[in-house]
Design goal:
The protein has 7 helices and 12 strands. The protein is of the alpha+beta class. The protein is globular, with a radius of gyration of 18 Å.
Length: 261
């Protein structure tokens, strides 16, 4: 076993951080950014998210019919998008489709807006229908750690209108758990809190391995936990009050490739 000491500021880092109107983004993702596609060098994501997006697209030749529209944004760019949208489309429209500067997932480098390849693409609301190649992407997304972040019917939770083009990297197996249980990130982070570290854990079979997920509340300046350093594990902050621990425990004989790790 190994003792880990987590700093309080680390609750604001990781693939599961919640960024919305109530929870702002406090870190700087710029140092870990890479282009999602060589032909679109200015559209970037955090390296791990970009690699998994590339793997996902390669699995069905998605880039032949899908284009990246918007990835990481600096605070100033998000402010400009907000101001331009207010000027051109009004405050009501902007509040539905554009996140407040400092509260946008795009500033984390974990979000990507995608559009179906066509002559004209709307930067704010790109076409990404629930059919054809776009639906193939959706059907595969969770296996690579991505979820449609703002689905219809969840607007009261996310604070953002339905955006079928906006996808968020949360990692595996979290994306699969969210999809299977029809949870948005706000719901998932609340749901997982019932599985307290050291008391219980949420189990899921993923890639032929038994994976368990648990929640550890932040205990102040320093939070300590014991982990089994003989197995793979990951820790992410939730950006509000604690950490999510994911442990890959037992391997089954029929294990398959763990795409999203």
């Amino acid at each position: 076993m190994k003792t880990l000491t987590l700093l309080q500021k680390e609750i604001h880092t990781g693939s599961l951080i919640l960024v919305n109107a109530a929870a702002g983004y406090r870190e700087d993702a710029q140092t870990s950014l890479v282009p999602v596609l060589e032909s679109y060098p200015t559209i970037q994501m955090q390296r791990r998210a970009a690699v998994l997006l590339s793997n996902l697209m390669d699995s069905f030749h998605g880039w032949q019919h899908i284009v990246p529209v918007s990835g990481w944004r600096a605070h100033a760019e998000q402010q400009q998008i907000w101001d331009d949208s207010v000027r051109d489309s009004g405050l009501d429209f902007t509040q539905k489709y554009v996140a407040l500067p400092g509260h946008s997932e795009h500033q984390t480098g974990l979000a990507i807006d995608l559009g179906q390849k066509q002559a004209h693409i709307d930067f704010i609301r790109p076409a990404f229908p629930y059919s054809g190649i776009c639906q193939i992407f959706r059907d595969k997304a969770a296996d690579y750690g991505f979820v449609e972040r703002y689905p219809a019917g969840k607007e009261h939770l996310t604070g953002i209108a339905h955006e079928p083009w906006h996808f968020r990297y949360v990692g595996v197996p979290h994306a699969k758990i969210m999809v299977q249980n029809h949870l948005v990130l706000e719901e998932y982070l609340s749901f997982i809190k019932q599985y307290r570290y050291g008391q219980s854990a949420y189990p899921i079979l993923w890639g032929g391995q038994d994976v368990v997920v648990s929640y550890l509340p932040c205990k102040g300046a320093y939070t300590c936990l014991e982990v089994d350093n003989t197995i793979p594990y990951s820790i992410s902050g939730n950006n509000t009050d604690g950490f999510i621990l994911t442990e890959w425990r037992h391997t089954h004989a029929n294990k398959t490739k763990l795409w999203g790790t």
